[in-house]
User: Fold Histidine phosphatase family protein from Microlunatus ginsengisoli.
Amino acid sequence: MSSPTPSGGDGRTVVHLVRHGLVENPDGVLYGRLPDYHLSELGREMAATTAQFLSDRDVTHLRCSPLERAQESMAPIAAVYPIPVTIDGRVIEAQNHLEGQHVSLGGPAMRDPKNWWLFRNPLKPSWGEPYTEIVARMRLALRDAALAADGHEAIVVSHQLPIWMARCDAEGRRLVHDPRKRECALSSVTSFTFLDGRITSVAYTSPAKALIPGVKSKKFVAGA
Assistant:
């Protein structure tokens, strides 16, 4: 999709959903909402790259997930736009019952009999927060960010699955999906244009694409 278009004083409001940068995760676990997962050195470089990409925009509102990696990704953006950052629990990572485990197709978490019940309904999904609930909270957070930045632009730092759910909702896509096919790279920007309170377009770009390690993920449930 195309890069985001700046608001131009015509009543449009743009809300940019930014995914955080790469996290230091030496054990390779699904960290989800677990505390003390911070950006790696490369992740901080990714965040700075995206902040630079967004540095010449008409931003009047900043909003962020309460998790450390999101706030660390917001830091270089807030340095560009010295305005208050609203911490919003509605844009937090999706809740997941597999936190702290190694989650991959055919991996330890899926082979453990204690977890089998969690995989009973991938359409919901049964291993964590239902897609419909993620959509509901992200819809409200997007609306409030758009209201706060009325006629201007807002930046919201969140996480892969909530951002993807917001985009699926806005574009009328099915919520059930293959996690490996989400278009929501590290430090990417998914931009929602509002006109008269309604989302009229969605744009996607990946400013830090060149910094992303070229390793194909086999994650089944992304914890990012």
Remarks:
- Confidence is low (pLDDT under 50) at residues 215-222.
- Residues 134 and 162 are 6 Å apart (CA to CA).
